[in-house]
Structure formats: C-alpha cells, structure tokens
Specification:
The complex is a heterotrimer.
Chain A: E1 4-15, E2 18-29, E3 33-37, H1 44-52, E4 59-64, E5 67-68, H2 74-80, E6 82-85, H3 97-109, H4 123-135, H5 151-164, E7 169-173, H6 181-194, E8 200-203, H7 207-213, E9 216-221, E10 224-229, H8 231-236, H9 238-249
Parallel strand pairs in A: 3-8, 3-9, 6-7, 7-8
Antiparallel strand pairs in A: 1-2, 1-4, 4-5, 9-10
Helix pairs in contact in A: 3-4, 3-5, 4-5
Chain B: H1 2-34, H2 41-59, H3 62-83, H4 93-115, E1 131-134, E2 138-141, H5 142-164, H6 166-176, H7 178-183, H8 188-213, H9 221-235, H10 240-266, H11 271-296
Antiparallel strand pairs in B: 1-2
Chain C: H1 36-57, H2 61-86, H3 95-114, E1 117-119, E2 125-126, H4 131-153, H5 158-178, E3 188-189, H6 204-227, H7 229-239, H8 241-246, H9 251-277, E4 279-280, H10 287-300, H11 307-325, H12 329-343, H13 347-353
Antiparallel strand pairs in C: 1-2, 3-4
The chains are: A alpha/beta, B mainly alpha, C mainly alpha.
InterPro entries (chain C): ABC_transp_permease, LivM-like
GO molecular function (chain C): branched-chain amino acid transmembrane transporter activity
Membrane topology (chain C): Multi-pass membrane protein
C-alpha cells in the first residue's frame, strides 16, 4: 500500500515573460524514487525552489503528508520532514562532518534556544547524528572538517544532513553531479537502500543512474511535464527523445 | 511670514540635499562599482575644505581655491586608492570598515597636526555675499542659491558622464558584472582609481562649498558622512538615482523637521519643553524615516544590487 | 552495563570514547589539550588580575583605575565579539548600548542624588543608587532597544546591516545630544558612585574586582553559550545560513537573540564605565566609540574568546603610552590598525596563540 507523501498541484511560476513553471503536478509516494529530468533551462531549479521554499509559486499548492506547505519558510518545511540536498555543496566548510549533521537533529528535537548544555557532550544530539552518518557509511569521517573531504564524501554528507531530520521525503538535487563512476555507483547503491524508508524525489542529469534507480520518471520541458511513467515508457517516448535531441542540437 | 519661512526652509532643504548628493554619489559609485564601503569618504570632504581654505587665503581667489580643493581631494583620493584601498576590494566588509576607519584617524590627526585644532577661515567671495529677493518677498542668501545651482549642474553632468560617455559605460558595466569588464579588456585598476578619485573630488567640492558656509575644521566630514550613509541606504546602495532621491528626501526632512517640529510641539506644550522635545525628535527624524523605509524595502528604494 | 541512560563525558582529559556510545569513539570530539593558547590566556587574565592588585598595595591607585578601564572596555568588546565574531553580524552601532547602559547608571544616580522621581506617571519611579538596580534596568533597557534595532537591521545583510546599525546608534547619539534634561551634549555627572550592599564601591580595588568579575562572567557565558545548541545554531548561521534553514532552524530568531545578548553585555559594561568615570556623556554613544570597539575586537582577534581582552589591553596601553608622548596618538593608532587589517588578519591572539581551531 503506497501513500502519497509529497504532492505538487498545478504549480505556476512566471518570471517576467518567462513561464518557468507551467501547471506542474507531481507526486511522490512511499517506497519510491521519483526522478525528475529535463534538459537545461527546463525549469528544474525553479520547481525545486518552490518545493524547498525559497521560491513562492504564483498559483498552485504543495502538500507534504497532507499538510499544505505552500506558504511555509524553508525551515518550517524542514521541520515538517522535507530533507534536501543541494546541487552545489552547501555545507559549513570549516566545521566537522558531525557538526553539520547534528544541526538537523537539533532542529528535530526542539527549538535551538538552549543556552547551557554543551553539544559536544549531548548524546541526544550525537547518537542520531552518528546513525545518519552510518547510513551513509561515513562514520569514520565524523570529526573531519568538511573542507578536507573529497567531493564524493561531501555528497554523502549532504544526504546524511538531510537524513538527520528523519525526513518524510527527500529532495535530492543532482546528487551525482561531479562524481566519478565509482562515487556515482556507491551513491546509487546507498540511495537504493534508502528509498524503502524515505521516498526520494531525485533531480538528476546522470541518465544511467536515473534509469537504474527511478521507479517513476517525470520529464520537464519548458516548464511543463511532458511525459510521465516508468523508465521503459520514458525511454521510448518520442517527445522525450525530441526534447533531448533538440537540446543536443542546440 | 510663514510662507516666507516655508520657502526659505524648502530651499535650505534642497541645498542640504544637493550637498549630500555630492557626497553620496561618490560613496554609492564606489560601492556599486568596486563593492567597497568607504568610511574615509568624509576625509576627502575635509581635505577639499582645507585645501580650498589654504589656497584661497594665499591667492585671494575663492575660485582658484575651489579648483585647488577639488584637485587636492581627487589626488588624495587617487593616492589612497593606490596605496590602501585596492588591497581591500576582495576583503570582507568588516576589513573595509576597519581599514577606512583607520584612514579617518590618520587623516583627522594628520590634518590637526598640520593645520592645528582651531577652525580655518573660509568665507564666500564678496560677489557671492548678499541676498536675492525671491517671489513672495523671501530674502535668500545668494551663496546658498549658488550651492543649489552647483549641485544641480553636477548632478546633470554626472548623469551625462554615466549614461553618455565611454567611462560611464564602463562604470555601468562594472556595476552589473565585475568579472565581465575585466574580460572585455578594460583596464580595471585604472578604472577603479579613476572612479575613486572622481568620488573623492566630488566630496572635496562639497566640503569646500559647505566649509565656506559653516566652518573648516577637523572632523567636519563625519556628520556629513553618516548623513550620506543614510542617504544611500534609503536610496539603495549602488544607485545614483537612489542617491539623488535619497539626498533630497533627507535634506528636506531634516531641515523642515528641525524648524517645524518645535513649532508643532509648541501648539500643545509649554515652549521650553516643546523646543527640547522638538529638537530631540527632529535630530532623530531621518533615522526614523530610514527605519520605516527599510521595514518595507530592506534594500532601499532604488536597489541596484539584489 | 546497559547504556540506557544518557551519559555525559565530563572527564575533560579522557581521550577515549564516551562510554555511552556503542562501538566507537565517534560521539565524542577529541579533546583540546593544554597548549600554547591556554598558556597565553592564563597569563593574560592572570596579569590583568595581579597587576592592579599589586598596584593597589603599592599605592598606585592610577593603575588600578586604568586596569578597571581596560577590564570594562574588554567586557564591552566581549559583547560586540559575540555579534561580530561568533554571529557574523558586523554591528557598527554598539556604542548605543554602551552609552545607554552608562545613561541608566547616570540618570538613576542623578535622581537618587536629587531625590527627584524619574517619572511620576503612571507609577512613581524614583532614582536608585544601587548598582544592582542599575544593572537590572540597564539589562532590560538595552535588551529592548537591541530587540527593536536588531529586528529591523537583521532583515538586511552585508553593508546595509553595517550602515543601519551605525545610523540607529547615531539616532540615539543625537537624541542624547539634544535632550536637555540630562545635560545634553555636556553630559551628566555622577556625584556619588552607585553602591552595592556590603561593598565599598568607592574603593578602587573593590571596584576593579567588581569589573573583573563582570568580565570573567561575560567571557564564561560567551564560552558556554557558544558550546550549546544555541551556539551551534549561531555558528551555522554565520557560516552558512541556507544550511541552517535547510536543517529546519530559522536563522533570523537565532541571530536576533544573539544580537540582544551581545547588546546586553556591552550595555552592562557601559553602566560600569559610567560609575568608574563618575560621568556619562554622548561621547559614550558616539560612532567613534563603536569604531574603537570594533578595532579592539579585530586587534585582539575576531571570534576568539580572549580576543577582546587582548585587544582592550593593547588599545588602552597604546592610548596611554602614545597619548603620553604625543597628542596626535590616534594618527599612530590609525597606522597600527591599518597594518593589522592589511597584514595580520588574525589579531594579537592569532599571533600569540596560533590560529583558532574552527569548532
């Protein structure tokens, strides 16, 4: 029995004359990886912004587990269980991996206006953070400053940070970007294991990874979803081929 | 009587506004093009006034003095840019604030060392003293009217410089994309020195003109500098149009507030208290104005940088 | 042993894992050892304490008061350091809180001295010559002002924030300058230093010890605060506020609270300063003082616990020594500051104690 966790209903967003999002409806269900693909300039970033909360849609709504989050701030959405990773790594570089991951745990447990107890001794914070790191196979790097990590490890930390929120849904923005074949394969494996617990909305350029991982794929072109289905359907859809070939021509 | 007062105060407000614009345009250009916050801008105002006073005293000609003041301020500006400021462009704003704060200390104490602590004499030339009678029987000092004229002339000249010349084109390119103009083969460091010197020259002009009205002394640039900050924050940092609008707004609100707030409080308060409350409130008025504007538009009215 | 209870690892020297965590030492951070930094810190604090005590018993009251001055200014800078160094909020208007704290002490003493009420409506509020009352009021007033100023200023960032905090402080400055009741630009003398029950606050050493206690308390609170959950969130707000929001914590309220705490510490230092000098004037509110506080924070090393203290020692020493040699000492201060900003980014503490570990 699958249930809808995240749903986008008829989202519209216009920038000047550009219709960046045009009547987009999507949903993410338990146990699945739903991939969102599309050529450059298709409006993926704008759409992600509307899900994550840094862009407000002109029309339409976003629901997370039945709660409308359309007007909420980024932080409110996160507390409700929307974990996300960024296309460009956005970790606090000088801090240790642990300190980055602990932030989400902290938000989850209560407000941050606790002024006295040192976090470095706070097992309530540390244990869930360790758990999230173990899930991403990063325990051995817990106290390493982020700036000393490899690119692939940073990607894993990003996901671990999102996991620390005990999210109901994960929004991963090109997690494979810049990874070599090895790193990409490793992350693919980790995500595959993860999806049973947390459904993932995956925005990805790496088509191999998408076709291997995704249960469903939606194709975004010029702000609209032009195709939707499993990887077999998408592979054979002529409109998708057009969109991608057209993109390659340009 | 009250119409006369109003006209006179409106003109005073515009006069303060035009002088603030001379200060604020340089500040906002330097921020817009180089991304630098420059506290030492008030020092160029002071340098301009001192140079004008010194040269006017030795040559006897106010105009020669004024020219010397502008050139001195621009030269000092160029020198400061070459020695110190260009090391700060890629630094955090905190470093810029501190380094230019240090420059203020150096300039102020240096000037005190050279010229002494007592104010220097500088008065408008005899052909600019006296009054004109405006419609409505308002008698208004010719010199202040001339300041308004200079302010308007400079504003128009600046507009043409920025919108119609090659230099202006490069400045605008620099405002929108700093890396870009380097790629276009423009000699950036020369452009930066030029823009900085231009801003310093304008500040020096303002200092000389106002110095003849008030007094030429160490620290004269600081109150003006802070008013100019309020101006560019209100107008939107980096925007010349915003600086012009903000300068006139601040000039008018400040001038009219100081005159009319005590009068207003006198209508329902004993006079002695009314002047105290009125003066205190008038001193805060432009900051309150700024707070209100920022509460609605955190980036100022004509923001050039988002 | 079953590890159901949350355990705290209090054994500061233990390098091994906290016993509460299964299988590895992951959940504890490796401890810092006693090192050069610790030595420099102890020497600095020890000298600040011992020199005035020795001076007092040798009869050099001047040096005791000088040490009080250093201590108070260091405390004001500790407050500012919380905003700038730990919170990344470059406030150019902390003189507002310093001066306001000073005026609370001054105005309260003025009314207590004249036996006039501060206000009669809606309730009768008399003046007070008790430091405890003064401090409490200073905390409240500074917190409220910082809440209002911070709430507006923190909507902006970068240069806007710098200029707006400056402008608001100027607003308070001009208000104090033109409000005649409490001396206007001439300032307000405090004829009798405010008192504390059981202590002779007029004794220079006693007063120094009060100030010293204030400084140590402010530093201890800052240190503890920055290790707490609040501190973790504030650090993240400084380093990467998008990450903080994505983790589910809104940066704005975190920053605002830190700004208020910072202002309160600086305000308390202001109250102590007014009582030390027996005088309060708009100079305490001036933007020059805001600038000097920033200079002290930077000279000492921004975002370091002992930075403000090192900066204050250096600043007041320079003021005293150079000021004794030439009346143009600020020219040299300017040159030193320029040198530090351009060439020694990590301040005196960075130079003495090595670079800070970023935790």
């Amino acid at each position: 029995m699958s249930e809808t966790i995240l749903s986008l209903n008829h989202l519209h967003k216009q920038f000047g004359a550009l219709q960046a999002t045009n009547d987009v409806s999507l949903e993410l269900q338990t146990g699945e990886i739903h991939a969102l693909i599309g050529p450059n300039g298709a409006g993926k970033s704008t759409l992600i912004g509307q899900i994550a909360g840094n862009i407000r849609p002109d029309k339409g709504s976003v629901y997370l587990s039945g709660t409308e989050i359309t007007g909420m701030s980024i932080a409110q959405r996160a507390r409700l269980g929307l974990g996300r990773s960024f296309q460009v790594s956005s970790l606090a570089e000088p801090l240790s991996v642990m300190r980055n991951v602990m932030m989400g745990v902290q938000a989850l447990q209560s407000h941050s206006f606790r002024f006295w107890k040192p976090v470095a001794q706070d097992q309530q914070l540390l244990e869930p953070a360790v758990e999230a790191l173990e899930r991403m196979q990063l325990s051995h790097r817990a106290w390493t400053p982020v700036c000393e990590l490899s690119h692939g490890e940073r990607r894993q930390v990003e996901v671990a940070c999102a996991l620390a929120l005990k999210p109901r849904a994960l929004l991963l923005d090109e997690p494979m970007a810049g990874l070599g074949p090895e790193g990409s394969a490793k992350l693919t494996e980790l995500l595959e294991a993860l999806k049973l617990e947390v459904p993932i909305l995956l925005i990805e350029h790496d088509m191999d990874a998408v076709f291997r991982l995704a249960d469903r794929i939606s194709v975004l072109v010029s702000g609209s979803v032009i195709a939707h289905g499993d990887s077999q359907t998408i592979r054979q859809d002529p409109r998708v081929r057009d969109a991608y070939l057209g993109d390659a021509d340009a | 009587m009250s119409v006369t007062l109003l006209i006179e105060q409106l003109l005073n407000g515009v006069q303060l506004g035009t002088m603030l614009f001379l200060m604020a345009s340089g500040l906002t250009l330097v921020f817009g093009v180089m991304g630098l916050i420059n506290l030492a801008h008030g020092s160029f105002y002071m340098v301009g006034a001192y140079a004008t006073a010194a040269v006017t005293a030795s040559t006897g000609s106010f105009l020669v003095g004024l020219g010397a003041g502008i050139i001195a301020a621009a030269l000092v500006g160029a020198l400061v840019e070459l020695i110190v400021i260009r090391r700060l462009y890629h630094r955090p704003h905190l470093d810029q604030v501190l380094a230019t704060f240090a420059l203020i200390l150096i300039f102020s104490e240096g000037t005190r060392w050279i010229f002494g602590s007592s104010p220097m004499r500088l008065s408008p030339p005899s052909w600019l003293t006296g009054f004109v009678t405006l419609p409505g029987d308002t008698r208004y000092p010719i010199y202040r009217l001339m300041l308004i004229g200079v302010g308007i002339t400079v504003s128009i000249a600046l507009y043409f410089l920025i919108s119609k010349t090659r230099l202006g084109m490069r400045i605008r390119a620099g405002e929108s994309d700093r890396e870009m103009i380097g790629a276009l083969g423009v000699n950036i460091s020369k452009l930066y020195t030029l823009v900085f010197a231009l801003g310093a020259g304008l500040a020096g002009l303002a200092g000389a003109l106002v110095g003849a009205l008030q007094s030429v002394q160490v620290g004269m640039g600081e109150p003006v500098l802070i008013l100019a900050f309020v101006v560019i924050v209100i107008g939107g940092i980096g925007s010349i149009k915003g600086a012009l609008f903000g300068a006139l707004l601040v000039g008018l609100v400040d001038t009219l507030g100081r005159v009319y707030l005590p009068i207003f409080f006198r209508t329902f308060m004993p006079p002695s208290e009314a002047s105290g409350v009125g003066a205190a409130l008038a001193a805060m008025l432009i900051y309150i104005l700024m707070a209100i504007i920022l509460a609605f538009k955190p980036k100022g009215l004509f923001s050039a940088h988002d | 042993m079953t590890n159901n209870t949350p355990l705290t690892n209090n054994t500061g020297l233990s390098k091994s894992a906290a016993p509460g965590v299964a299988n590895s030492g992951l959940a504890t951070q490796p401890d810092n050892h006693f090192d050069r930094k610790g030595l420099v810190q102890i020497v600095l604090l020890g000298l600040l304490f011992l020199v005035p005590v020795a001076a007092y018993f040798l009869g050099h009251i001047y040096y005791v008061n000088l040490a009080s001055r250093i201590t108070i200014i260091a405390m004001a800078a500790v407050g500012l350091n919380l905003a700038i160094g730990y919170g990344g909020m470059v406030s150019f208007g902390h003189a507002a809180y310093f001066g306001l704290g000073g005026y609370v002490a001054g105005i309260s003493a003025y009314h207590a001295f004249n036996f006039t009420p501060f206000m009669t409506w809606p309730v009768n509020v008399p003046g007070s010559d008790s430091m405890l009352v003064v401090w409490l009021v200073a905390i409240l007033v500074c917190a409220l002002l910082a809440l209002a100023i911070g709430a507006i200023s923190l909507r902006t960032t970068g240069v806007y924030f710098i200029m707006i905090t400056l402008a608001f402080a100027q607003m308070i400055y001009y208000f104090a300058n033109s409000w005649p009741t409490y001396g206007g630009e001439d300032g307000l003398p405090i004829y009798l230093r405010n008192g504390l029950p059981g202590l002779d606050t007029n004794n220079a050493l006693t007063y120094f010890l009060i100030c010293f206690f204030g400084l140590v308390l402010a530093m201890a609170i800052t240190s503890r605060l920055m290790k707490s959950r609040f501190g973790a969130a504030l650090t993240m707000a400084r380093l990467n506020d998008v990450r903080l929001a994505t983790a589910g914590i809104s940066p704005y309220p975190i920053r605002l609270v830190a700004f208020v705490i910072s202002a309160v510490i600086t305000g308390l230092a202001g109250a102590l300063y007014a009582d030390l000098n027996g005088f309060v004037s708009p100079t305490m509110l001036s933007w020059h003082f805001s600038g000097e506080l920033m200079v002290i924070v930077i000279l000492g090393g921004v975002g370091r616990l002992y930075g403000p203290l090192a900066g204050a020692v250096l600043f007041v020493m320079m003021e005293t020594l150079l000021g004794g040699m030439t009346q143009y000492w600020q020219l040299f201060l300017g040159l030193v500051l320029l040198g530090v900003v351009l060439f020694a980014k990590h301040g005196v503490m960075g130079w003495l104690a090595g670079r800070e570990r970023n935790e």
